[in-house]
């Protein structure tokens, strides 16, 4: 018995050693797979610190001759700060409203029974399949007749009621379906109504999915180029995706050093937000499933 236990102990200590080369090889392969995604971002950061001539040298040269001058110039010579605030304003309004509508609509589709519920849900899903370009002209005419052209209001509304909004409703519905009904029954026994059950029981259990919906809504708002291109004419009212195309010289060329510096400032907040919430994002996508 003693010799058998010793042999088992030796086998257990030897197995991790034999697997170490395979683990190292797996890490090397993962690094190689990630390189095509990481290298463009690294090049963008390095090029944002170079002069207009230095960009066309070696792509990954560490000769950052311009330093922070490019960042100072985009704020000094362009209304970039105002455009940044415009994007933050649309984000601050559209994302919370998207979360509120997705959570309430998803709960209604999953837990409440009312006439036309299934038809309304199918129409919500159908909204994801309609190209934005197909309805752009009638939408523009409607907003222009309301006197909302060249304002941020149409941008916010179209970001809320978009394909991303419909996807958010779908994700929330799928999540609420997976929650046991005994939780609702326990809440009603304690005297909670429908809103109370939703507020105090369902929402606290939905934080991972809400985080996923928030990330989708942030990306949809932050990267929206099509709608601002149609509705905004005043340069001071433009959002960041439109601002990136304004760094041009009088001859029609592009100041690539300024464009890349602005691109870093545009990409950095979203990149940091995703890195901080990536675990919640992945877990919620895995948990949402397709039940129901």
List keywords for this structure.
transmembrane; 0% strand; 13 helices; L-arabinose transport system permease protein AraQ; globular; MetI-like fold; 292 residues; mainly alpha; 2 domains
Written account of the structure:
The protein has 292 residues and is mainly α. The chain has two domains: 2-37; 75-288, MetI-like (MetI-like fold, Orthogonal Bundle), CATH 1.10.3720. The protein is built from 13 helices and no strands. The chain has helices at residues 2-47, 69-77, 80-111, 117-126, 136-145, 153-160, 163-178, 181-189, 194-202, 207-222, 226-231, 240-243, 256-288. α3 packs antiparallel against α10 (207-222) and α4 (117-126) crosses α7 (163-178). The model has no long low-confidence stretch (mean pLDDT 84).
Q: Say what the CATH topology of the largest domain is.
A: MetI-like fold
Q: How far is the first residue's CA from the last residue's CA?
A: 54 Å
- The chain-level structural class is mainly alpha
CATH class of the largest domain: Mainly Alpha
């Amino acid at each position: 018995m003693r010799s058998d236990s010793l042999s088992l102990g030796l086998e257990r200590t030897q197995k991790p050693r034999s697997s170490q080369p395979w683990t190292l090889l797996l890490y090397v392969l993962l690094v190689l797979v990630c390189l095509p995604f990481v290298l463009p971002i690294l090049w963008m950061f390095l090029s944002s610190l170079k002069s207009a001539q230095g960009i066309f040298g070696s792509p990954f040269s560490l000769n950052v001759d311009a330093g922070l001058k490019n960042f100072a110039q985009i704020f000094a010579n362009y209304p970039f700060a105002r455009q940044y605030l415009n994007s933050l304003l649309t984000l601050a309004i559209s994302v919370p409203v998207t979360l509120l509508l997705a959570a309430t609509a998803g709960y209604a589709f999953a837990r409440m029974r009312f006439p036309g519920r299934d038809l309304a849900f199918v129409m919500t899903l159908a909204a994801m399949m309609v190209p934005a370009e197909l309805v752009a002209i009638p939408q523009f005419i409607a907003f222009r007749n309301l006197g909302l052209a060249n304002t941020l209001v149409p941008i916010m509304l179209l970001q809320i009621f978009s394909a991303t909004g419909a996807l958010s409703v779908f994700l929330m519905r799928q999540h609420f379906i997976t929650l046991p009904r005994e939780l609702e029954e326990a809440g009603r026994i304690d005297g909670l109504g429908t809103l109370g059950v939703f507020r105090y029981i369902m929402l606290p259990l939905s934080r991972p999915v809400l985080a996923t919906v928030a990330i989708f809504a942030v990306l949809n708002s932050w990267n929206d180029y099509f709608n601002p291109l149609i509705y905004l004419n005043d340069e001071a009212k433009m959002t960041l995706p439109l601002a990136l195309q304004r760094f041009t010289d009088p001859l029609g060329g592009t100041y690539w050093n300024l464009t890349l510096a602005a691109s870093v400032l545009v990409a950095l907040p979203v990149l940091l937000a995703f890195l901080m919430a990536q675990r919640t994002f992945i877990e919620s996508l895995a948990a949402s499933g397709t039940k129901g």
